[in-house]
Amino acid sequence: MQKHWWIAGAVAVLTSACRVAETPQQAQARMDQETAGAKQAIGNIERNYERYYSEGKLDSVATLYTEEGRELQPNGPAISGREAIRANEVENGSPFNMKLSITSEHLIANGPIAIETGTFAVEGVPRAGAPKEALAFKDNGKYMTHWHQVNGQWLIADLIWNSNQPLPAPPSAPARPARR
């Protein structure tokens, strides 16, 4: 009996060693197919992202991220984990009625990982009762998203975005008195 286990093990090792690696053309064809499937699924997720903003369901945005997901926001620290992302979205967006538009420009998938780049436009109008510091705004910019497929579902692992708007000019320095 032990002899048969050894033979089966040897056959398994030799079979795996004899597999032919993908040619570049085969790899490209596989990735093209994976990318087409990912584009459709990720497009649906992005429509949910937009809907959550327009319906004021900002706490739901965090469900689109992996458990360890990160928002790499401009001019601030990385926000890590679903709970931190949920809290950040709610804190920053609750004073506003918002509209978000996401336009994917390029996406490539390879197995359970995809990288996407695109543009966004967002606008917000203060809700009734919002703090007086909450001013209407419009912004547009670009983003890059690192997606992971977890249990068959695409989720955001990392999202980085930044505005196309120029930074405000720094305050001017007070005039120095003339030297005598």
Structure description:
This protein has one domain (23-163): Roll (Nuclear Transport Factor 2, Chain: A), CATH 3.10.450. The chain has helices spanning 2-17, 24-54, 82-93; strands spanning 65-72, 79-80, 96-110, 113-126, 137-150, 153-163. The model has no long low-confidence stretch (mean pLDDT 90). 33% of the residues lie in helices and 36% in strands. Strands 2-1-6-5-4-3 form a six-stranded mixed β-sheet. The protein is of the alpha+beta class and 180 residues long. The chain starts with a helix and ends in a 17-residue tail after the last strand. It contains three helices and six strands.
CATH architecture: Roll
Proportion of strand residues = 35-45%
Shape from CA axes? globular
Mean pLDDT across all amino acids: 90
- Beginning-to-end CA distance, first to last residue: 105 Å
Q: What is the number of helices? A: 3
Class of secondary structure makeup? alpha+beta
Domain count, please report it.
1
Q: From the alpha-carbon coordinates, what is the Rg to the nearest angstrom?
A: 24 Å
Largest sheet: 6 strands, mixed
Q: Which fold name corresponds to the CATH topology?
A: Nuclear Transport Factor 2, Chain: A
The CATH top-level class label = Alpha Beta
